[in-house]
Design brief:
145 residues; mainly alpha
């Protein structure tokens, strides 16, 4: 059943990908056609030095960068929620302790795991912030040059 669903999903992904590519090509063709037509109209100011192309390239690069950052952020959030769910399950397991020594041992384990989860979450967030800053600064320096 899963392979059938995956094949249908893959099929739709492929169809939507082809539609997206065709739409992008259509928009580019329309823009180029409009540029060519407007060259011959008197009174229409002409863009000098390829400024419009640089702005469009920057916008495309910006869109790709933001999309990749958001996808990575979603992955990090999924990881953090998974770790939180594991900690919650362990906390429920803690209540099932029979004797005080076992309870103390499980409490210590839960505390250590909770601290590790918070440390890992903080490290992931700092790493994501650094990656985002690096990508944005790279994009800005690339667009200026």
């Amino acid at each position: 059943m899963a392979t059938q669903t995956e094949s249908v999903t893959g099929f739709f992904d492929q169809v939507f990908g082809n539609i997206r590519k065709a739409s992008e090509a259509n928009v580019e063709l329309q823009q180029e056609l409009f540029r060519k037509w407007s060259e011959h109209w008197p009174g229409v100011p002409q863009v000098q030095g390829g400024y419009a192309e640089r702005v469009q390239k920057f916008q495309k690069d910006w869109t790709k960068t933001v999309k990749s950052l958001l996808n990575r952020h979603r992955e990090v959030l999924d990881e953090e929620y998974g770790l939180a769910i594991d900690s919650l399950e362990e906390a429920f397991w803690l209540a099932q302790s029979a004797d005080p020594q076992e309870y103390a041992k499980r409490c210590e384990s839960l505390c250590r795991k909770s601290l590790d989860v918070m440390r890992e979450a903080g490290e992931m967030q700092v790493k994501e912030l650094q990656d985002a800053f690096n990508k944005m600064s790279e994009l800005m320096t690339k667009s200026v040059s």
